[in-house]
Amino acid sequence: MTEAPDPAPIPHTGPQGSQVAFLLSQLGEHASQAFARRVAELDLTPAQAGLLRSVALAPGQHQQELARRLGMSPSRFVAFVDAIEERGLVERRRNPKDRRFQDLYLAPKGEEAMRGLAEAALAHEEAICAGLDPQERIALGELLRRVAEAQQLTAGVHPGYRRLNPRRDGA
Fold first, then answer.
1. Is the CA virtual torsion 147, 162, 96, 87 positive or negative?
2. Which pTM does this prediction carry?
3. To 10 degrees, the CA torsion angle through 114, 117, 123, 125?
4. First to last CA, the chain
5. Is residue 161 predicted with pLDDT exceeding 80?
6. What is d(CA 12, CA 17) in angstroms, rounded to the nearest whole number?
């Protein structure tokens, strides 16, 4: 009778099998889904919430600049902005220095949405970091920023914008 070969060993990942990449992926997916549920209560998608945040943090950016920062093609970005402009959340204004450009600003309804988003983001942060004390949260944040920088990720921009389909993703 022939013996079955030993199964392949489970790959050892990182120091003492820490599986950091897996844990980041697992937590990232969990956090993304939980955030999506929170912003859905505000009648927003995560992508719309992110765009509102980007406009709120730097009002007056022109569309091309913001599309480039988010890693979106200009044509997809225009359709994305059209949808939230129709809802009264943002407004386009002609750039006074170069009339070819449209600058983005929060509309009053968008400012109201940002207040709800701020509350949702705080509740989300608290829920995700519930197992950590304040010092551990700070340390984890610093470590994750270093990992993100080493991966050359744009600070404050979710890489999912590159794959965003305005029709499919609720924009």
1. negative
2. 0.78
3. -100
4. 63
5. no
6. 5
